[in-house]
Amino acid sequence: MSFLDIDEAILEVAKLVEFSTSPITDFKEFTPVDVGIVEGAVCNTDNVEVLKKLRANCKILMVWGDCACFGGIMTMRNMIPLEDVLKRGYIEADSNAKGSAIPTDEELPRLLDKVKPVNEVVKVDCYVPGCPPNAKAILYALTELLAGRIPVLPSDMMKFD
Amino acid sequence: MKEITLTINDKQVKGKEGDTVLGVCQANGIDVPTLCHLDGLTDVGACRICVVDVEKERRPVPACAYPARDGLVVKTNTPKLEKYRRLLLELIFTERNHFCMFCEISGDCELQKLAYRYQMDNVRYPYTFPSKSVDSSNEYLAIDHNRCILCGRCVRACAEVAGINTLDFGKRGWKTMVAADITEPLGDSSCISCGACLQACPTGAIFCKQSIYKGRTADCQKISTVCPICGVGCELDVLVRDNNVVMIKAPKLTQTRGSLCKMGRFELLSQTSARVTSPLVRNKQGKLEECSMDTAIETIANKVREFKGSFGGVASTRVPEETLSQFNKMMHDAISTEYVDTLDGMSYRVISEGIKQFSNNGKKMDIESPVEEISEADCIVVVGADPLKTHPVVGSLIRKARSLKGAELIVIDSAKDPFATWSSLWLKPKAGSEGTLFNGLIKIMADKGLVSREKLSAELAKSLNKYDVDKVSKATGIGKEDLESAANQYGKAKHGVIIYGEGLLQKNDPKLVASLLTLASLTGDPSKDKLRVISLKPNSNSRGAWELGLAGKGLPQAKLKGLYVLLGDEQGSDEILSLIKGLDFVVVQAGYQSAVTAAADVVLPCPIWAEREGKFVSMDGRILKSRQVLQPKNGLLEDREIFAKLSKKLGKS
């Protein structure tokens, strides 16, 4: 959403870059690219797998948002043992049907013991924090990348919330 | 103090001996980031954000705790130092759960500002995610340990501003936490809810329940005014947003006069009593009903005429001098009565008569000392007063003199020792024996040679003859040893301060005040024209009202039939209720509904502290200006407009 907030500048960006794999294009596998962009914290085994694949396929990995940069609001569960979190979500919560259980299907990704920021799992090259990240900051980072520089947000563009 | 020269960032700068490196930097406009440092509090070097390089030191040193010396060569901004600072910030962030998106202080947070300054867009160390509690047991304050950086500013403010030492660090190492007393919930601890810790906290760890999520400082307008409650007269910075008070702060947390107390910081903020919104008049069925201002004024005017000669007026001393003077004028000119008093008038008459008996040279209340004297004291005598309750800032100053400077603290009170574990001596004179005690102490001091000859007039010395130690001990019920040690402590003090208050004044005996003044005049080295005596005058403008002459004579209760009570912000006490009981007609002009307005025959709505402005005189004679903080509701008349209406109705304008 914050990316879309860069408004008409998105047209200029679109002229200069080629979007490869993304939730919008719905490609399931990555192809080698220059820049990989991640938002969100690392919560489960699937996140880890996707992240590692992306890292392997991109030259520069950029993360957007407080969750990806620091763990953010997702980490609220880190203060509670994982077992209790699952029990609360799948058994104790009022919205659950009677007799429901914690899903154990092997097809499902497993929650990590602790939610992590992206840089605790793979190497990250640049960061755009913010909850949500500021559109101006995103545009700044993209502009820097297109100019061949690794972006570092100046102090006056930093915002955690 | 000796001037010294340092070289900071290749520039020669001047400082004073005794400064810290940080102090010299700040005085010379050299920016050094700080976090655990707060102007006026002892520096401890807890956060290390202010690290600087000093030539010949093997490693960076905290500027806040490093003494400046002549010839010191300092660097404050090398890339390596900046790298260290960023690293320190990252470590602080990993230690607890610092997430800004749901933090109340975001936008006003010093930790956040530093993280922005050092472009901390990621943290290179694994977070620890400790599971920390939130202590919201206090009525006004809450501590979220998740956001605490252990800078210790609250701990130092608690000791050095509040003087109570409730907060300290508990547990050890990795598990260190800010703790109240022996890890009690704050609400069950010795905390006095003065809020010094709140104002000292650089993050969202300590927050005020009444202020949270109502707006950041930048969203608010800051208006400086004066606390309308007790006689200390603290200055307030009131943060206002959309005609609501968001927060009340002390202009400077660490000023000598002390910070704010619970009353000024929180009680004003969380005032929930219902306002008087319309004039009320008692109808034929005996019920108060809403009416127009004109009807109310008409009703009062009729009664004033009916009770001519037996109508009086009494005013709260929590309103500005202008209001009091207009009230006085109306009572004299329009209501044509001499019967005017303040609600605390008796205190005035006891204090002023006592001063007169002591010395008839027209000195009046200027003979007393300013509150700041307490900070200098090496012996404090508290007589019949509970400053912790009535004047908490004075209570804090007393405790600080005791805990930080080791002053002796003697409490003279027959009922209780408000300072409990803090006092060095508690004398409990039998009821009515206070005068004997004061004179007995003078006698012991004179006998021990603790009083200089020239101060002790022959007349006084002679009058003391009857106060033999054994007799005084018997009359007061206080052991000889205690009497002697009290006389010793106070007599030997270089800077003894006597503080008295309500408990003594209620005895309605000016002689006691005169004896205390005599006691004070004999000791130490009193500055030229003042005695080190402080009377705790009850309200924010007691002294102002008294100096206007409002409390000169008191009310002749037997003669009164009608009474005009300017209650202002006060919500009434048993004394006021008993004052109006049995009167034929009572007008109450008040901001809030209370038992007193419920007992009135006519109630007139008036503004409250935040909606007024004017002059106040603190109990030690400082002239203060209060400013309007909030806009009153449309149609609410100012006090003077009400007085003018009634005066006009009575044919005077």
Describe the protein in words.
Chain A has 161 residues and is an alpha/beta fold. Chain A has a single domain (4-77, 112-157), classed as NADH:ubiquinone oxidoreductase-like, 20kDa subunit (Rossmann fold), CATH 3.40.50. Helices cover 31% and strands 16% of the residues of chain A. Chain A has helices at 9-16, 45-57, 65-70, 82-92, 135-146; strands at residues 33-39, 42-44, 58-64, 111-116, 126-128. In chain A, the strands form 2 sheets. Chain A has a 3-stranded parallel beta sheet, with helices on both faces. In chain A, strands 2-4 form a two-stranded antiparallel sheet. Chain A is globular. Chain B contains 22 helices and 27 strands. Chain B has a 7-stranded mixed beta sheet. A 5-stranded mixed beta sheet of chain B has the order 2-1-5-3-4, sandwiched between helices. A 5-stranded parallel beta sheet of chain B has the order 20-19-18-21-22. In chain B, helix 9 crosses helix 18 and helix 13 (434-447) packs antiparallel against helix 15 (469-476). Chain B is globular. Chains A and B meet through helix 3 and strand 5 of A and helix 3 of B.
Question: How would you summarize the topology of this molecule?
Answer:
The complex is a heterodimer of chains A (161) and B (653).
Chain A: H1 9-16, E1 33-39, E2 42-44, H2 45-57, E3 58-64, H3 65-70, H4 82-92, E4 111-116, E5 126-128, H5 135-146
Parallel strand pairs in A: 1-3, 3-5
Antiparallel strand pairs in A: 2-4
Chain B: E1 3-8, E2 11-16, H1 21-27, E3 51-54, E4 61-62, E5 73-75, H2 79-95, H3 110-117, E6 134-135, E7 141-144, H4 153-160, E8 167-170, E9 177-180, H5 196-200, E10 206-208, E11 221-226, E12 235-241, E13 244-249, H6 262-267, E14 280-282, E15 288-290, H7 293-306, E16 311-315, H8 321-334, E17 340-342, H9 345-358, H10 373-376, E18 379-383, H11 387-390, H12 392-405, E19 408-412, E20 425-427, H13 434-447, H14 458-463, H15 469-476, H16 480-492, E21 496-500, H17 502-505, H18 510-522, E22 533-535, H19 542-547, E23 562-568, H20 574-580, E24 585-590, H21 595-598, E25 602-605, E26 614-617, E27 623-626, H22 639-649
Parallel strand pairs in B: 1-5, 16-17, 16-23, 18-19, 18-21, 19-20, 21-22, 23-24, 24-25
Antiparallel strand pairs in B: 1-2, 3-4, 3-5, 6-7, 7-10, 8-9, 11-12, 12-13, 14-15, 14-25, 26-27
